[in-house]
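Progress against Task 2.4 (sequence-to-structure conversion) is shown through the following example record, which the project officer requested during the mid-term review.
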Amino acid sequence: MLKLTIGNKNYSSWSMRPWVLLRHFQIPFEEVMLRFDGFEPGSKFKQAVTQLSPVGKVPVLVHGDLVVWDTLAIAEYAAEYAAEHFPEHALWPRDQAQRARARSLCAEMHAGFGALRGACPMNIEASLPEVGQRVLAEQPAVAADLARIVAMWQAALAASGGPFLFGGFSIVDAYYAPVAARLRTYALPVPPAVAGYLDRLWASPGVAAWVQEALAEREYLAFEEPYRPSR
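Structure tokens generated for the chain above:
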């Protein structure tokens, strides 16, 4: 069985992606939670995850003797695993051209949007609309990241007809789920078509399950909270 090691669901955006993907498609996996206590070399989290992965970060997928530690690599491995064991599920769009476009969107998320990710860290439990308003006003790079994401989503939804970016739910939707979390937490404005997509994504089985468990953690980590002195 697949084994997926993750961090706190409320804060760990990279962990969210493969967990949501596997959960949505009901691919069995064992979850291993390594709770954040800091990211210094001596922290319990860092010591534990470094034993699994050379980069010392979550998520980490283990399958037998194989260890996969990059989120996009995990998604690709999950797609191949599903094709072999759960052929009824297509984790990427089945059309070749659409699959290439979906991979392009994932790669752009994987390598970009640093301004948005840095200024608006994932915090599912929090509601920080005033912070979002201030960040957009003061940081043009965040506004540019948001505009690019909205444009990508609008183009994909218009081409596919929805309900998700490439029709049915796929890796690219799981990949942008933490972005949806940020848009909700910081109340970043989006046009109606994108707002509808966000609502559908938030209600999808894997995302809804992750959010429910994130809210149940009820754990406040000061080093993950740049905007609140307490919960």
